[in-house]
Design a protein that fits this description.
- The chain is mostly helical.
- The chain folds into two domains: 79 residues, no CATH class; 56 residues, no CATH class.
- The chain has eight helices and six strands.
- Strands 1-2 form a two-stranded parallel sheet. Strands 3-4 form a two-stranded parallel ribbon.
- The radius of gyration is 20 Å and the shape is elongated.
């Protein structure tokens, strides 16, 4: 909106919800682009600046444009990988001499529960990538973390997502 106040023409593509319905944010305030193909074919070349509000979507599509000099205010694919892939980020920090916390990655809930029950110290669940942020959890103790893992293990969508990671 500030850009519009200074006389710039602004257009916004906001990806649809998972069910395909459009998001309502910004309606009546900013011109929205609804057609993803038109976004790629017409509007990227039109833009003086391309801004992404996150580091999980459209980076692969925009990388060729970045390489030929388009002004893109967002991380590159490699930088986003350090943020989204916890293991890659941890390896990069360790290689740079930055101390990192001990961590362990799990792709199934029963294995995570067994680990928690054997290692009853300060525990945090932190999803990697673009996973459901509701899975970020700081446990009070091992019993608390076990409870949350058992609860998540009952949800088929979360079990499937864990295996895909």
């Amino acid at each position: 909106m500030r850009s519009q106040q200074f006389g710039h023409e602004v257009k916004w593509y906001d990806r649809p919800r998972g069910d395909g319905t459009p998001r309502r944010a910004g309606e009546g305030i900013i011109e929205k682009i609804r057609d993803y193909d038109a976004l790629r074919k017409k509007w990227i070349g039109w833009a003086d600046l391309i801004y992404l509000p996150d580091n999980a979507h459209y980076l692969d599509m925009l990388e060729p444009f970045r390489k030929i000099g388009y002004p893109i205010y967002a991380p590159g694919v490699e930088a986003a990988e350090l943020e989204l892939n916890r293991g890659a980020g941890q390896r990069a920090m360790k290689a740079a001499g930055i101390p990192i916390m001990e961590s362990k990655t799990f792709t199934d809930y029963p294995a995570a529960i067994r680990f928690v029950q054997k290692n009853q110290h300060f525990l945090v669940s932190k999803p990697s990538g673009d996973a459901n942020k509701a899975l970020s959890y700081v446990a009070h103790d091992a019993a608390d973390m076990t409870y949350m893992l058992e609860r998540w293990a009952q949800r088929e969508d979360l079990v499937k997502a864990a295996k895909e990671d």
